[in-house]
Design goal:
This protein is an alpha+beta fold. It contains 4 helices and 6 strands. InterPro entries: NTF2-like_dom_sf, SnoaL-like.
């Protein structure tokens, strides 16, 4: 059976469109598409779990080149909480990352914050900050009454 091409968000008309493009590009190890979702700003920032803070497009590109040297990232957003104020959107997401191990595929969780700004080119990513997650984050995201501080 032939593999189907993943659905692609065609525009960055909403923060959700931009987020969909970002995660699709991560899955495909598509460096150009990953970079296309970022704002054209010297202060864009990316922090991957366990990695250094990368500021600016050149540093972010270099970080994703290293990640993609191993292939695409088997990641999907399983929960998202959104806050939109004017031309700024903050998404708190729970990512499920599947990693092959000797014992089979292992699912791990990452908690990330994605910050988007509305620009003349649509909604663009300003900051992606990801940290390792665990059982507490799973419960927090599943319980809508959980309190953020």
């Amino acid at each position: 059976m032939p593999r189907q091409k993943p659905l692609q968000a065609s525009l960055m008309a909403t923060p959700d469109d931009t987020e969909a493009q970002f995660y699709e590009a991560l899955q495909r190890a598509d460096l150009e598409q990953v970079m296309a979702v970022w704002a054209d700003d010297e202060e864009i920032a990316c922090i991957s779990p366990g990695g250094p803070r990368q500021i600016g497009a050149a540093a972010i590109r270099g970080g994703f080149e290293e990640i993609f040297a191993q292939g695409g990232v088997n990641v999907r957003v399983v929960q998202v909480r959104r806050v939109v104020v004017g031309g700024c959107a903050v998404h708190h997401v729970l990512e499920e990352v599947r990693v092959p191990t000797e014992q089979g595929t292992h699912a791990g969780y990452v908690v990330a914050t994605n910050l988007y700004a509305k620009t003349t080119q649509g909604w663009k990513l300003l900051v992606h900050h990801a940290s390792p997650g665990g059982p507490a984050e799973l419960l927090e995201f599943r319980d809508p009454s959980a309190i953020f501080h």
